[in-house]
Specification:
The chain is built from two helices and 31 strands. The protein is mostly beta strands.
Length: 373
């Protein structure tokens, strides 16, 4: 268990955010130290949206957006205090940045420049989202904060969780007047490294704990997936989505085909796969997906400069854990849409490279844009 020291404590309070009265979490519930580093909660606002972020795991704790009638809900899953993130027995990755290698690495090992690197392995014999103490379980340095943005920094040390290279990461969260939540990543290294950073908010456009996502309409601009085995590890091939439950090139509800007798759906207990985006450019930010919630009218567009997107339909939640408002976090009541490179790329030469070398800069932009109709 991590060492955590609280400096203040408080309960959920209603706070004013610009012109909006929202049930913001009090900063005092996140004011403390983890591993002797200070942690706080920061509130950002721009346009019609507001967001709270803690520098423990660079987590998005709340994200308030209006529905078609102007009613606000917090549309991300999260916990109400720092302690629940640090010492939780439920879902680990709520709202966090994940890395230095997002998604899975088979066997917890890879070879780079002739040297094999051994990483921590979970019960499935793989490394997930950077190991047991990935970017989601460290305290990020707060470089600067303004009304609508926060700049965070972390040095992932050579050998940390078995990964090579002192990987120096800067990450900026920005809310824009166009109701966008924009994430910009930059990283450099002093030694050959593998880098694939992503964001892991769980979204429910009805509001946290307010019901199923199976009626949500999803579009993904992708003609291929990377099929996986029962441990969700890719086999190195690409599979055409035509005629399958994975064809979201036109909008389908998530629940429409999720119970189809399909080995990939069985492996993930629903949708938990990497889609290969039909990119129009090499590295520009493009629209890659759209999620529409019909009862509230909320829409979330996903834009990215990355080659792939992981779509996860909340298959492993079981209601045993409550969120920050005391509501159970239930089965298929949230969606993760993670822009990224392919899972297990270090072990597949045919996949886009995730190798970062000295003198190079890793960059990645992800934008979640909100609206209603």
């Amino acid at each position: 268990m991590k060492r955590i020291t609280f400096l203040l404590s408080a309960i959920l309070a209603v706070a004013s955010c610009g012109q909006k009265d929202l049930p913001l979490l009090p900063a005092s519930s996140f004011t403390g130290e983890v591993d002797m580093k200070p942690v706080s909660l920061y509130t950002l606002e721009s346009g019609d949206i507001a967001m709270q972020v803690t520098n423990y795991g660079a987590r998005v704790v709340t994200l308030f957006t209006p529905d078609r009638d102007g009613r606000y809900e917090d549309i991300v899953l999260g916990y109400e205090s720092l302690d629940r993130y640090v010492n939780n027995s439920g879902e680990r990755f709520l709202g966090a940045v994940v890395g230095p290698y997002a998604n899975r690495i088979a066997g917890g090992r890879f070879t780079l420049d002739g040297q094999e690197y051994i990483l921590p392995q979970n019960d499935n014999g793989q490394t997930l989202h950077g190991g047991f103490n990935g970017l989601d379980r460290v305290v990020w340095d707060v470089v600067s904060v303004s009304d609508d943005s926060i700049v965070l920094h972390y040095l992932h040390a050579d050998g940390q969780e078995g990964f090579p290279g002192n990987v120096d990461i800067k990450m900026t969260y920005t809310l824009t007047p166009d109701n966008e939540f924009r994430i910009d990543y930059e990283a450099t290294t002093d030694k050959a490294a593998v880098v694939n950073i992503s964001h892991h908010s769980f979204f429910n456009l009805k509001g946290e704990g307010n019901g199923t996502i199976e009626d949500n309409e999803l579009t993904i601009n992708a003609s291929w997936i990377t099929p996986v085995d029962k441990y969700l590890i890719p086999d190195g091939m690409l599979e055409d989505v035509t005629g399958t439950p994975f064809d979201f090139r036109e909008a389908h509800t998530i629940g429409e085909r999720i119970r189809t007798d399909n080995v990939q759906l069985k492996n993930g207990r629903g949708y938990d796969l990497n889609w290969v985006i039909d990119r129009k450019t090499a590295d520009e930010v493009e629209k890659v997906a759209e999620l529409y919630e019909p009862t509230t009218g909320r829409v979330m567009e996903v834009w990215s400069d990355q080659p792939a997107l992981q779509f996860y339909s909340g298959n492993f939640f079981n209601g045993s854990t409550t969120g920050k408002y005391g509501r159970p976090l239930r089965y298929r009541e949230s969606v993760a849409l993670e822009t990224q490179k392919y899972p297990d790329s270090p072990n597949h030469d045919s996949f886009p490279s995730t190798v970062l070398r000295p003198g190079e800069t890793y960059t990645h932009t992800c934008v979640y844009k909100f609206g209603s109709r």
